Model the fold of this input.
Amino acid sequence: MASEIAEQPAVLEKTLREEAPRFDALRRKLAERRPAMVVLIARGTSDNAAGFGRYLIEITTGIPVSLAAPSVTTLYGGGLDWSRALVVGISQSGESTDTNACLEAARKSGALTVGITNEPESALAGIVDEVFLSHAGRERSVAATKTYTGQVLTMYLLARALGAPLELDSMKRLPGAAQSALALVSDVERLAERCRFMERAVVMGRGLNYANAFEFALKMMETCYVTAERFSGADFAHGPIALVERDYPVFLFAADGPTLEGSREMLDRLAGLEAETLVIGPASRREVLDRARRSIALPDPPPPDDGLPADLYTPIPWIIPAQMFAASLALEKGLNPDRPRTLSKVTKTL
Done:
C-alpha cells in the first residue's frame, strides 16, 4: 500500500499524457450531443471518485449529475430512460457486475456510455461507447490508493470534455502537488502512532472534499478496522454531532473557498465539546489549523482556473496524507494493510 501511494505522481502524469487528447476528442463529440444530465455508476472507492465527479461537474458545467442506484436495474428491473444522458461507469477492475449491468441497460436505452477503468481488456471496456484509462498499472494492495486519485483526475478531464473551463496546464501541476504531499510521511506516521488505540472516528469534508471524507473513512475501515463515520459538516450538525464527547476523534478537511467558514465554525464547536480533532488543510491558513488539536499542513494547492472556487484542485493532494495515515495506523495496530480480512481485490455484486 505504501509503495502504491508513492507511485501516485507518476500515475497522474501518465494519465494526463495518455488520456487528455482522447478526452479532447470526446469534448468535440459532446459539443454536438450535449447531454441533459450525467449519470455516474460505481461501487466502493470508485463510487467515492464518482461522488467527487458529481460536485465537480455540477459546479463547473451546470449539468445535473446523478449517482446511480444499481439495484434499481439489477434487482428491481427498473426500466430507466437514459436516452438523453451521458452514463459513465467507473471501476478499477472493470469487472464490477452491477456497474456493467447498468452500463449495458443504459446503452440499450439510447445513452452515450463511457467507461473509466484501469484494465483495458476488462468486461467494462467491451460494453461502453468510449473507454478511458486511469494508468495506475497493477494495484497489488486490496485497499485502492493510486486508482482513486487516477479516477479523480479523469473526473477533471471528463468535466472539461463537458465544457468546464478547466485548463490542462492547471491539471499538470497536480503531480507536483501530490509529490509535495508525500513529503509529509514522517509527520503523518507520528500522528498515526498517537492514534494506535482508536476504535471509532468521524471524518468530515464538504463540497469538493466531501468525497475525500468518504474515502478516508473507507481506508480506515478497510485497513485498520476503525468504525469511521463520514459526513458533510452540514449533515453532521443536523444530529450526528450528538456522538461527540470528550476526546472523540474527529478528522476534518478544511479548504479555502466556499466551505472555509463552515469548517471554522465546526472546529470551534468541536473544541467546545473537547473533541480530539485533526484537520487537514493549507499551511497558509494557520488560523484554521490552530483551531484543531492536531493538524496536517499541506502546501497551497494549484491555483484554481478563472472564476472557479479556491478548493478546485485540493482533493488529489489532500487525500494522500489520509491514505498514508490509514496505512501507518494499520501497522501501529499490528495489522497488514495489504490484506484486510474478508476482502478481495475484485468484488462482484448484483
